[in-house]
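ok so I'm stuck.
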Amino acid sequence: GSSVPVPCLSCALSPWQALELAEQFDPDELRRVVLALALQQRRCVPLLRALSYHLLQKPAELPLPVLTDLLFAYSKLSFQQPQVLHRLSLELQPHLGTLSPAQVSRCARSFASLRWLSRPLAEAIAQYSLDNAQKLSITQLCGILVSFARLNFQPSSSEEFFSMVHEQLQGQEQQLDTHLLTDVVWSLCVLQQARPPHLRQVLSPEFQARLRGDTSPRAQSSWLKLLHINATARLEAPGYQGPFLPPEVLGGDGDRDKDKEREKATPLQRGLQEALPGALGGPDLLRHNVSTVYGWDIDAEAVLDSDNKPLPVRDFTAPHLPCSEGTKPLPPGARRVAVLRWEFPQFSSRGRELLGRGSMARRHLRAAGFLLAEVPHYEFLELKLERQRVAYLKDKVAKALASDTAGDMATDTAT
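replied:
not stuck anymore, here's the structure
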């Protein structure tokens, strides 16, 4: 992924020696040190911070090999330094036309893995893809598409760009391995560009059979994406007739539940669990940590009657669960509310925009009939007292109900 041989400056230095010398390094030496760390998978954060600081002090524009190698290295080390990423995206943009399709695809993937969306650069990559459609290999184009989906980026030339993507993909799907094809169709679902043939291809029993029984992390990730694709087919593709995933594979009774048990609860998750009973009622009125048939987990679910009073959630049918506990239909005027937390990694590293995965979860859960009380980490964790957190959650639910009522009134007025 880079133009520098591994044996380089930093191989002869310890990280601490490099730290002492960093101020004297020119941009090319900085590049060689960071690249060597990446190729050796040595994520020495104090050194990376120091190198980033000294890099930002260099006033002249960075040479193209420095830009591309630094981006590759930061991505390989999962090291996010906003000022450096801003500089790399700003200075890469004018050079984009001189890069090879492989380099452009690699840059797109690196920015996506770092959750960094520079809209001007992403627009330039979309235009590059249109201008060089015949030169891009199918794998390189897929890399760009998957990157846009991860970042939840829709090009301004959306219609033209996706027409080109569909044209290039047509008949080429057999070239893609199982996981890449799953990623591509999932990405089209995130960007609301999936067509029935794509859905049919990955939801067919033959395709599912390729992933069944494979317990590797990559296969588990692909299987979860298949659940999201299946949810898109159910909730966002009205003309789609099937196939769908069979009901027995949609549950939360397998690996997803085991994984959730193994995961350590985050501070946001713990704080929510403590505050929810005070905001929405006790264990009989709430359902916690719900794994839905759509592949999305919600932190809590409540049913509120037409007067916004909580009802015992387990009494009612629940089409979003693999096995419904209750049998009663929702009473007239009752609403389902889902409390949904948004952790730090679900946002772009530039700010407070949800990435593609979160954006699709929000759409699917709304389409499934939920009102969403969304709880981002940067709001909730600022509140230190439980009474503040309870009041915050009550306010979130009230706002979700109010927006639903306003939407109903607008619909009534229109009709």
